[in-house]
Design brief:
- The two termini are about 40 Å apart.
- The strands form two sheets. The chain has a six-stranded mixed β-sheet with strand order 3-2-1-4-5-6.
- It is an alpha+beta fold.
- The longest helix is centred in the last third of the chain and has 21 residues, at about 295-315.
- Helices cover about 30% and strands about 25% of the residues.
- The chain folds into two domains: about 1-190, Ribonuclease H-like superfamily/Ribonuclease H (Nucleotidyltransferase, domain 5), CATH 3.30.420; about 200-315, no CATH class.
């Protein structure tokens, strides 16, 4: 399998959101990539400008950041032709690598808009080198570092300017090589873009990582139907496969996030988190569930959240005033979700 380290530059409406095409908020204007084959050997490079057709005026921020002018882009080819050459160059068996999670959804949106075959008719697996850097060097995943920080961290020579597609792909590849030389197992921490969610049970994603399990469900008509599926609420230990005993049932604090706490007799406490995502094509919802073994301190955070919801329910049982259906000014949803 080839590793394709890719970076994209894109333009947007130069005259405000009112002139943005909803199906294409960002139009790709440059693709840069490097290809690594078996054994981490550099195989070849790819770099092409793209002639825009939707946003023909360069956004001021884009122009300053990537140092490109519309006159230069007019020398490029149309997106369909460049995309066709790019995927032919990738080869039949490849895995995309990016710096951050933003490039893959933009690529999928452009492919769909210009009627080019999608990377995949469902979630796209890719490697987020920014996430790997944080896992390896920062020991966390929340406060992500920018690419230049990672380049400086490893003492990589900065011999070409940043903020062009090929140069950022090149630097991402250099950082990735440093990370995998240090810990080859990092490559297992794949990410998934859900621009196109699973459309049926067959294409649902369930993957066990070294420290957690992720499940991406198919599209359901609505939330209630999603939660009636036993698999949605199941909390089996991803290490041994045995059913984990529920200590705190699924509950929500009103932000499309749901939590629970279970315990595996053999492996200990396990936190469950479900995030509900709306989608429009097809219309409905899908969910992403993560199960992770946690410490007692981390479990206490879940319990604190649950007690906050329970206290809200208790205080409002006899004093709740009449209000519009569904309105909840506190931001809390005083509800539990049914058992599996």
């Amino acid at each position: 399998m080839n590793l394709i380290v890719i970076d994209l530059e894109w333009n947007q409406s130069a005259s405000g959101a009112e002139n943005t095409v909803p199906e294409l908020p960002f139009e790709i204007i440059e693709i840069g990539a490097v290809k690594y084959g078996e054994g981490g050997k550099l195989v070849s490079e790819f770099s092409e400008l793209i002639r825009p057709r939707v946003y023909r005026k360069m956004h001021n921020y884009t122009s300053k950041l990537v140092h490109l002018q519309m006159e230069e882009l007019e020398k490029g080819d149309f997106f369909e032709k460049v995309a066709e050459r790019f995927f032919k160059w990738c080869g039949p068996d490849y895995l995309l690598v990016t710096w951050g999670p933003g490039d893959i959804p933009v690529l999928q949106q452009n492919l769909k808009y210009f009627e080019v075959p999608l990377i995949n008719d469902g979630p796209v697996a890719f490697v987020d080198a920014q996430k790997l850097f944080n896992l390896s060097e920062e020991k966390q995943t929340k406060n992500r570092r920018n690419l230049e920080y990672a380049v400086d961290h490893f003492g990589i020579t900065k011999d070409i300017p940043f903020h062009r597609a090929f140069s950022d792909a090149y630097y991402t590849a250099q950082v990735l090589k440093k990370l995998l030389d240090k810990d080859p197992e990092l490559i297992k921490f794949e990410s998934f873009d859900t621009t196109i969610p699973p459309l049926d049970k067959e294409h649902e994603v369930r993957i066990v990582f070294p420290t957690y399990e992720k499940f991406i469900s198919r599209v359901y008509e609505n939330r209630d139907k999603a939660f009636k599926d036993r698999e949605t609420l199941a909390t089996r230990c991803y290490v041994c496969g045995k059913r984990a005993k529920r200590k705190i049932r699924w509950f929500s604090m009103g932000d499309r996030r749901y939590y629970c706490l279970s315990e595996c007799e053999e492996h200990g406490l396990m936190k469950g988190k479900i995030v509900m995502h709306p989608c429009s094509d097809p219309e409905g919802v899908f969910l992403i569930k993560v199960l992770r073994l946690v410490s007692e301190k981390e479990a206490a955070v879940v319990e604190k959240r649950f007690n906050k919801v329970r206290e809200f329910r208790k205080n409002n049982t006899n004093s709740r005033k009449a209000k519009k259906p569904g309105k909840n000014t506190s931001g809390l949803i005083p509800e539990d979700i049914g058992e599996e």
